[in-house]
Design goal:
The protein is mostly beta strands and 265 residues long. It contains 2 helices and 17 strands. It has one domain: Glutamate synthase, alpha subunit, C-terminal domain (Pectate Lyase C-like), CATH 2.160.20.60.
Length: 265
């Protein structure tokens, strides 16, 4: 696998739109060709090389490409947009719309990721070593279908509206999550190792939500089914004492929610 290295030179205070940072677009180009790719600062068209130094090698095929980004790119929008193969690694924080419309390949963030990460994704894998923002794996505003495949792994915490309108795929959060987790979910699986704020599974139709910590406030429209000693996430058995709920019955939903029961002293 050949590696192209982008190192931050200067990101304008307004931020930039850089959906060109993907193996799908880099493949087969020269380093100068990559430096001259168009990006936008607001309405102003500039070049990728104005904001990054570009080094390394470029593969002829996207599946053989690895893009490594060094520095804080929290002000860079749409990195990895519609990526279908290859790898992107960000050695710092990432900006909004990371991996939106992702179809394949891998994205790894060693820092935090902002809101709308994995929006509308249908394949591939995103791994965030730090925290994630709001609307992780969600639908674009105004659309009725969100994440439809692939997987997102967050080692830290996540914000609100994780998996909103999610139809398929997997989201795993190692820390806590905000309110409206899995709102209007119609398929897929979400697991949270920590605690979750209120309104979990609001308007949920199908799918699975697993919470290992506490839920701040359960919606009354979820019907308690009973107690189970294990649950499955991505085919892997997760042991523990869980309470199973069905809902959101106010919407005629048949989703499954499993909340781990606290241990008694």
């Amino acid at each position: 696998m050949k590696e192209t290295v982008l190192e931050v030179r200067n990101i304008p205070p307004l931020g930039i739109e850089a959906e060109v940072i993907t193996p799908d677009i880099f493949q087969g180009k020269t380093l100068d060709g990559i430096r001259n790719l168009p990006i936008y600062e607001g309405k102003t068209r500039i070049k990728l090389g104005d904001c990054f130094t570009v080094k390394g090698a470029v593969a002829e095929k996207k599946q053989d490409m690895r893009i490594t980004i060094k520095g804080d790119v929290s002000g860079v929008k749409r990195i990895g947009q519609e990526i279908s193969a290859g790898e992107i690694e960000i050695c710092g924080d990432a900006g909004i719309y990371l991996g939106c419309g992702m179809m394949g390949g891998k994205i790894r963030v060693k820092g935090d990721a902002s809101s709308w990460t994995g929006m509308d994704m249908c394949g591939g894998r995103i791994e965030i070593m730090g925290d994630a923002g709001n609307f992780l794996g969600s639908a674009y505003r105004g659309k009725w279908k969100g994440m439809s495949g692939g997987e997102i792994l967050v080692r830290g915490n996540a914000g609100s509206n994780v998996g909103s309108y999610m139809a398929a795929g997997k989201i795993a959060i190692g820390g806590d999550a905000g309110q409206f987790l899995g709102i209007r979910m119609s398929g897929g699986q979400i697991m949270v190792d920590g605690c979750v704020d209120s309104r979990v599974g609001a308007e949920m139709m199908k799918g699975v939500i697993i919470v290992k910590g506490e839920v701040k406030e359960m919606l009354p429209s979820f019907m308690k089914k009973g107690e189970v000693g294990k649950v499955l996430f991505d085919g892997v058995e997760i042991k523990g004492e869980y309470t199973e709920y069905l809902g959101d019955v106010a919407e005629g939903g048949k989703g499954s929610m499993y909340i781990r029961r606290p241990k008694l002293d």
